[in-house]
Amino acid sequence: MAGRRRITVKVNGVEYEREVDPKRLLVDFLRDDLELIGTHVGCEHGFCGACTVLFNGRSIRSCLMFAVQADGAEIMTVEGLAGDGKLHPLQEAFREHHALQCGFCTPGMLMVAYELLRDNPDPTEEEVRLAIAGVLCRCTGYKQIIDAVIAAAPKMRGK
Amino acid sequence: MPEHLKTFEHKKRNWVGKPLKRKEDLRLLTGRGTFMDDIRLPDMKHAATLRSPYPHAWIKGINVSEALNFPGVRGILTGEDVAKMSNPFPVGVPVPPKYYCCAIDKVRFVGEPVAVVVADDRYVAEDALDLITVDYEPLPVVMDIEEAMSPEAPVLHDNIGSNIYSHRFFQYGDMDKAYKEADLVVKGKFHFPKYGSTPIETYGVIASYNPFSEEFVIYNNYQGPFVNHSLVAIALGIPENKMRWIVPTDIGGGFGTKTGLYPSIALIALAAKKTGMTVKWIEDRREHLLASATGTDRVTYMEAAVKKDGTILGLKDKAIDNTGGYIRAPEPGCAYRSTGNHTGGYQIRNLDREVLVVGTNKCLTAPNRGYTCQELYFSLERMIDLVASELGMDTAEIRFKNFIQPDQFPYTTATGGIYDAGDYQKVFQMALDKIDYKKMREEQRKAREQGRLMGIGFSTVVDPSVTNIAYVTLALTPEERAKGHPKSGSGEAVIIKMDPLGKVHVIACTNPQGQGHDTVISQIVADELGVHPDDVTVSNVVDTHDRVYSITTGSYSSRFSSVVTTAVVTAARRLTEKMLKIAAHLLEANVKELEIQEGKICVKGSPDKSMQMRHVAGTAHWNQAALPEGMDAGLYETCLYTMPTSQPPDELDRVNSSNTYGFMAEAIVVEVDPETGEVKILKWASVHDAGTILNPALLEGQVMGSCAHGLGGSLYEEWAYDENGQCITASFQDYLVPTAMEVPKIDIGHVEIPSPITALGSKGAGESSCMSVPACIGNAIADALAPLGVTISELPLSPNKIWHLIQKAKKKR
Predict the structure, then answer these.
(1) Which domain, by its residues, includes B50?
(2) Which of A29, A47, A80 lies at the terminal end of a domain, its last residue?
(3) Is the peptide bond before B225 cis (omega within 30 degrees of 0)?
(4) What long-range pairs does B516-519 form, CB within 8 A, spacing at least 24?
(5) Cβ atoms within 10 A of the Cβ of B433, count?
(6) Number of separate domains in chain B
(7) Which residue range(s) make up the domain with A126?
(8) Contacts B26 to A, Cβ<8 Å
(9) B697 contacts in A (CB within 8 Å)?
(10) Rounded Cα distance, B281 and B77, in Å
(11) In this complex, do A143 and B746 lie within 8 Å of one another by their Cβ atoms?
């Protein structure tokens, strides 16, 4: 189709080369073109945070970016956390503390929590609240998520 | 309680009651869940819905020709097609409005579907929407609940002739006598807002139609199917067995909101039928915030007849519910669902009720976590505080004064509810202790001396669970009901099987939306069969062709803990019974001599006479000739359990509208900033009696989540409209959902008073604080603002609203 652009993106360490329409959203590219359906769409206007991924190391809303903007970028999604059939310590802490119910916002929550603990290995409760405040959860009331992130911190420091 | 109603003996358990980690988490944490939008079928096309920009208008014409010629568009469905291809949805009111899944000749709220475009991809479908031209003739709107009843109001539905969908009077006890005996009558008016639960996953449907077999296959994220599968079949004009619903493994939140999905199921089914394509529709957030479903907003006028000592002799209330542009099932349920617990936790024997259900040009309604009870308790619990204030009584003391006493259970309410078990004093006392009530009152006194606005609020409410579908028939008079077919029941089905190698699999149909049912089912079965929870797998999704289910099946009204658990236990016991019979036959022993120990069935006192359970299973499957004569082969047992307390209403309109009744007490301390109107929560205790606790981690999750929902409805969330009928909260920028910064620390407590009518003693816990928090925060803020002479009668209490209330009160002085 006319106007399609060829892009190269590295997602969870794997390089992909694809042709995309200029108006294709990054989240649709991830979910539909790369079949990485772990990233979820909750609002398409940048407020719920379910679609959060790490883009060159920083958390972004993948519903607010076009796929063409990701040309040459490195992206991490929820699928990139666990390896070798073993949960990442952050995922383990989420399970231990019952930090998820329906699990729809969880990929976004894990991404912002991962970014926080990478940059701030020993956060206060207030810092955790602030970091996850951009991701809406309607099931948990957030308490068990906050508990999980705080509990994951020493495990991630030791990793 | 009637003698014939089944009661259960509760025994000690190894797995139930433990905070077992969830089975569900492994897929959900790793991006391997299967939600609605994750389902991709071969040759699937995509739909986008054109929605009305007008709250009330005639549709004079629709031109789709340009859109049809747009490259990639495969077909368009309009109201004209819908009128030819389907019927209005049935709804249980005397004169139903003609509610189709799409507007036909008139739109009645902003966001009502007008046409559906089917295209090769979603981008094309959405672009094509802009090419459809609709000729609207705008009409005057009616947006206010009470104005809707005025004879001058614009009428939404000509076939009804007014905007009143349902109107009934009820009398329980003797309210005239209560008025005569009363020392005073306290009056109040309350307005409960329109808000929703906005699950983070929106609605979704994939429909296909086979014109040769005339069958629909429809994937959807409905939280049923219960009664609405039948209603969609009626709307589509097809036999129910020609429509298969399949729900994916994971639903991204439901909270009742997803029961509002069924008209969209019909709409996409018709789009699939018309185009001959497999059609996928995933609702976007704007559509959700315009046109999905909200809870029911209500205006209540209430009067309490009271003695000087604080005894409440009776209540009289008039409640007006607003179901928006149409009324659709399960409405008018909001008006009647809480009938059995209408007098809350109090010994109030006299009640006069008037119920009105009206229409306005607003989004339609569906049950919203807590369904009916947040509306009811906002008025009842605010009323209790108004009575206390009139009498100069302490707000805790007046509650203790009127509570049902622990020795009165089972307690039948004036309206027919049968409260199974409770100790309200104990629950409330724990909440008081947790906030250190006496000290808080002292601090409040000091704060007031400094001119600070500090307030303490309570709400102490009965938490009904497991709806008895009988309640919906209260929309009809006893005479009208006598002419039709009675309704009753709360059934839920479970199948349990042991495979030939001795492992257990449970098939349920509760369609969970994050509640962790699979984990709890494996805990229960592990206890029943003496196996490890890891040895139990659970499949728990709806497929209306493959699953055993009942008209009441689904996850709503906090059903799982009471009715599903009892079905699981009963099915597991049937399986055990069969295994013991097989073992007795093979061991040449009597069933009564046998016991199960660590995976073995043994003859008591003869350790050498035993066999492995897996060998029993192996025999049942692989050596069927060795089974006792007349026994069915294999190891499968089913239980479709309905609670015997689910009876139809009687001729006096009394009904046990739910089946188990938990209790909760909220105690919240707030401080209001007099300059900005901002509310700060200083302390919050939330104490619950959900009967036997099945899994404490999951229960804490439910309570915290419901507290956050209650907080949202109290302070932030409102489906707001301007006077022209435009919805002004159609994005998450305007519709404010509590974030991690808004939900404070909550001190949660539990009192376990087991229910005698469920197998494990558990009562519902899923909706919980959604019912009690709005009333409690309302009471706390009212208490804080009392020195200024401000009364609280509506929600949400945004800083803006509080600031205006304070200014108004200042002007009065």
Answers:
(1) 36-142+203-289
(2) A80
(3) yes
(4) B516/A101, B516/B22, B516/B24, B516/B695, B516/B698, B516/B701, B517/B555, B517/B560, B517/B564, B518/B22, B518/B23, B518/B24, B519/B20, B519/B21, B519/B22, B519/B23, B519/B24, B519/B695, B519/B698
(5) 14
(6) 3
(7) 89-157
(8) 87, 95
(9) 97-98, 144
(10) 13
(11) yes
Tokens of A82: 């666990």
Q: Which of B234, B261, B289 marks a domain boundary? A: B289
Give A-chain residues touching B289 at CB under 8 angstroms: none
Residue among B33, B737, B746 minimizing CB distance to A136 = B737
CA B617 to chain A, closest CA, distance in angstroms equals: 32
B701 interfacial to chain A (CB closer than 8 Å): yes
Which 8-state DSSP code applies to residue B346? B
Q: How far is A55 from chain B (nearest CA, A)?
A: 18
Are residues B329 and B91 in contact, defined by beta-carbon separation less than 8 angstroms? Answer: yes
| Nearest chain A residue (CA) to B254 | A102
The CATH number linked to A13 is 3.10.20.30
Mark which of A50, A80, A110 sits at the end of a domain. Answer: A80
Whether B257 and B271 share a structural domain: yes
- Cβ-defined contact of B200 to A107 (cutoff 8 Å): no
What's the number of domains chain A is made of? 2
Q: Which of B29, B700, B733 is closest, CB to CB, to A87?
A: B29
Judge if B728 and B587 occupy the same domain. no
One domain, residues B553 and B453: no
**In whole angstroms, how far apart are CA B274 and each of B113, B118, B803?**
16, 10, 54
CA-CA-CA-CA torsion for B691, B692, B698, B704, nearest 10 degrees?
30
What does the pLDDT look like over B443-459, one tens digit per residue?
Answer: 999 999 999 999 999 99
pLDDT per residue as tens digits for the range B540-566: 989 999 999 998 988 888 999 999 999
Contact B741 A130 (CB under 8 A): yes
Question: Among B283, B83, B74, which residue's Cα sits nearest to residue B199?
Answer: B283
Q: How far apart are CA A89 and CA A99, in angstroms?
A: 13
Question: How many angstroms separate the CA atoms of B107 and B60, rounded?
Answer: 11
| Direct distance between the N- and C-terminal alpha carbons of chain A, in angstroms, rounded to an integer | 47
Verify that B92 and B74 share a domain, yes or no.
Answer: yes
Q: Are residues B412 and B529 in the same domain?
A: no
State whether ipTM is beyond 0.90.
yes
Please report, in tens digits, the pLDDT of each residue of chain A (159 residues total): 558 999 999 999 999 999 999 999 999 999 999 999 999 999 999 999 999 999 999 999 999 999 999 999 999 999 999 988 899 999 999 999 999 999 999 999 999 999 999 999 999 999 999 999 999 999 999 999 999 999 999 999 886
| Structural Rg of chain B based on CA atoms | 27
Name the minimum distance, in Å, from the CA of A31 to any CA of chain B. 8
| Nearest Cα residue in chain B from A126 | B741
Which residue, chain included where needed, has tokens 């493994």?
B249
